[in-house]
Amino acid sequence: MSSSPVVPHHIAIVMDGNGRWATRRFLPRLAGHKQGVDSLRRCARACVQRGVSVLTVFAFSSENWNRPADEVSGLMELLAMALAREVPQLRADGVRLHFVGARTGLSAKVVEGLAQAEAATAHNTRLVLNVCFNYGGRWDIAQAAAALAARGEPITEASLHAAMGMAHVPDPDLVIRTGGEMRISNFLLWQAAYSELYFSDRLWPDFDEAALDEAIAAFSSRERRFGKTSEQILSAPASVPG
Ligand code: IPE
Ligand code: IPE
Ligand code: MG
To answer: Do 204 and 36 touch, CB atoms closer than 8 A?
Structure first.
């Protein structure tokens, strides 16, 4: 008899492969990004159904500004469009949106859209959806250190963590990267210290419920040791929540 898998509390995803998905179909890269929004909607629903509490996705990195100008402006427009189209349903589905990343460099319209989407979903409790946009792990660590220094506060692991963009959620249990690359590309450098890593060859638009279940099953079979020995983990009494 197979036991049901251990569902991660917090899943984080580097949603990579949109451009290749489009290019393989002789479509413009932006068509792949549009399909990526559909894939995110499907993934968020699947996470709600499976009892995942936090989903964090990498949507636009600090380094993605270096792409061709038309792709960057297309991604900004797509964000504004996706907000207008998706927020009412996310609101109804119990999803709470957070945008993590620098606001500098974004247009006033986009910044306003992010704030409105966060406010419209602030009462929701079923799934926290963190969208890392104009985000880099190095940016996050540096801005947290600068904020502490400006307030004259000591820099410790706890104070840095509290000043970072993901302070409102526990660290990710599982980090998935789609698209076949095996690198972190400046995502959650601090928070992924003890995350289980899972790499999928599927391009992000093709990452469906079955692919998510495969990732959860792989996570379920890992032994998380947090620096201890396997014997210590196996002999520890099961932790009681709360
Ligand atoms: C990820 O897909 C989305 C963003 C980085 C905005 P890519 O656009 O990187 O897709 P590939 O890697 O070129 O296929
Ligand atoms: C990482 O993908 C960023 C996002 C998915 C938003 P990239 O496509 O930018 O990563 P690299 O350049 O291949 O490392
Ligand atoms: Mg890529």
So the answer is: yes
Residue 242, pLDDT > 50, answer no
pLDDT grade for 240, boundaries at 50, 70 and 90: low
**Boundaries of every domain in the chain:** 10-136+170-222
The residue count of the chain comes to 242
Fold for the domain defined by 10-136+170-222: Undecaprenyl pyrophosphate synthetase (3.40.1180)
Is 134 marked active-site?
no
Mutate-to-test residue for ligand 2 from 20, 23, 64, highest number of ligand atoms within 8 A of CB: 64
pTM higher than 0.85, yes or no? Answer: yes
Task: Tell me whether residue 64 is one of the annotated catalytic residues.
Answer: yes
Q: Count how many Cα atoms sit within 13 Å of the Cα of residue 238 in the half-sphere of its side chain.
A: 2
Task: Please identify, by atom number, the ligand 1 atom nearest to the C-alpha of residue 29.
Answer: 8
Among the options 18, 64, 186, 201, which is catalytic?
64
